[in-house]
Amino acid sequence: METVTKALVAEDDRALADIIRLALTRGGYQVTVAHDGKKALTLATNSKFDVVVSDYQMPLLNGEQLLSGIRAGGASQEALLFLCSAKSFELDSERIRKELGLSSVFFKPFSLGELVTTIKSHQTAAMA
Amino acid sequence: MSLKITNTNRTLRHVLMVHSATVLLIVAAILGFAGIPPWQNPMLSGVLIAILVALGGSFALHRSLYSLLQIETRLARIASEASAAQDTASLSLEPASGNTPAEFGWNRLVEAGRVWRALDELQKTLLASMADRRRGTGPQLLDSLSEGVATIDAEGKITYANMSLAAMCGQPNGEPLIGQTLANAFGADNDTAAKLSGEIDPAQTSFEWTVPSGSIERVFRGHRRPGRKSDGGAISYVWTIRDITQQKLADSMRDKFLATATHEFRTPLANIRAYAESLDMSDDLDPESRKRFYNVIQSESMRLAQLVDDLLDISKMQAGAMALECRETDLGRLVEEISQKVEGEMREKHLEYRCELPPKYPKLMLDKGKLAAAIVNLLGNAAKYTPEGGRVTFRVDVNSNRVEFSVTDTGIGISEEDLPRVFERFYRCNDDRVREITGSGLGLSLTQEVARLHGGDVNVQSKLNEGSTFSISLPLDSTAA
Lengths: 128, 481
Description:
The structure holds 2 protein chains of 2 kinds. By secondary structure, chain A is an alpha/beta fold. Chain A has one domain (5-127): Response regulator (Rossmann fold), CATH 3.40.50. Chain A has helices at residues 14-26, 37-46, 63-72, 93-100, 112-127, and strands at 5-10, 29-34, 51-55, 80-85, 104-107. In chain A, strands 2-1-3-4-5 form a 5-stranded parallel sheet, with helices on both faces. Chain A is globular and about 35 Å long. In chain B, strands 4-3-7-6-5 form a 5-stranded antiparallel sheet. A 5-stranded mixed sheet of chain B has the order 9-11-12-14-13. In chain B, a hairpin with a 5-residue loop joins strand 6 and strand 7 (235-243). The longest helix of chain B is centred in the first third of the chain and has 44 residues, at 42-85. Chain B is elongated. Residues 1-9 and 86-104 of chain B have low confidence and may be disordered. Chain A binds chain B through residues 12-13, 15-16, 19-20, 22-23, 26, 35-36, 57, 59-60, 86-90, 107-113, and chain B through 255, 259, 262-264, 266-267, 269-275, 277-278, 281-282, 296, 300, 430, 432, 435-436.
């Protein structure tokens, strides 16, 4: 029996969250969406997600705080983490990537196809 | 100083030649009597006496003329020195009435002595004045610089500090800084002291350091160049230092603005790209989803265009490049037009909309289009941030000095922390209820600029969870028709 890969999308822009959900669902993921960092952390702590895709700038907790919280403990501690951001030069993405063990960082506007392909390739590499 | 001297050379030379010729004639006469002892010839004795008298007179006259020539040479030298000093004062040493020295005969000897003494005094005064100028010009020039200038000896101690540097270090004059290290003078920490002394990198010539000053940090940038070598061969330095605190603040504000603007542009762009890609890649999309996707692309494109327009308008207004087109405006008509624009939105949210206008109001000179847009923006915000069933009141008040357009709502209100920042470009309140509603954070900034262009301003009063009042207040003297 094939295991369903669970993905959590944390994005406060509802339109973008909807389209990422659609792309991941079409890619075979079971997707849950949260529109703020705090709600996303609660979900990730209580339920096991294989993949977390988070926006950087969100209400209550930003993306770095959320992903840091997920790595600190809880059901999704081992999840593959992906950060999306509309920030550019002012975001020290390399530092965050190293400190939190992020799989990849995407800068808006990004390609949905590339997002899904990258997530899948990291999953494949992680399982190998 | 302009020293003007009458040139007497030609006259003096002429006189000298005449007297020399006289002497030569007398000598020739003596030669005529050669071989005859003068004491044996009474006539010859008389002639010799005459010759001696003539020689004595001639000698005295030569001395007088020689003295005058020396005086003239000295005057020329003083004039040359004075000219080099470029004094603006004018001093004339021209002899009175244009008389030549020879015309005064023997009396010139006495006069020459007097003039000689006077010249001594003049030269002393002139040299002292020139020395003062040389001493004073350098520091005066350095003190007039906006940059701080200091010289540091081989031990790292300040040996000279100009006024700008003294001011940077909080000293009214530079004296207390002499003997201190540069780091001490600025009150810098140990790390900065090590850096400025060259301990960390002796080859470093450019430095930047910060010094706490009240609630801010002042930033300084300094460059050092090696000065002359002292006896022991150690190098002293000349420092030039600038206070770049304001420049750093401006840079920081520009970077922050650029970062915020970039973020705001990328967000709608991300949606447009994602939805366009989804439309392209998903052939099996149902017509309803397809239509929804197109709508998202359209609305996000409009959001982007509005963002660009608002940003350009604000920039133009702040740069003074946007002029008002003021025309005589009827307040009643203005309020009516504004209300027509917002009533639909108020109805959709089931908000009670009230409009209060004074019974009498003057006609005003206003840019109706821009002012209406500013007020519609305030009413739009009130509608967005007031829960269903709430109330929005648009009120116009006119007194002898001002006209005030105020929008009051019973909405979510603004926290005390957010209130001082609501007019900042791109600022959005740190409230989930605000973040859930689309907005660029430019509307209030735009409204404020419109009010300021009319000579007025926007005020806000708000209480979290109770509501807000935004008021555009314009002076009547600049708007009275």
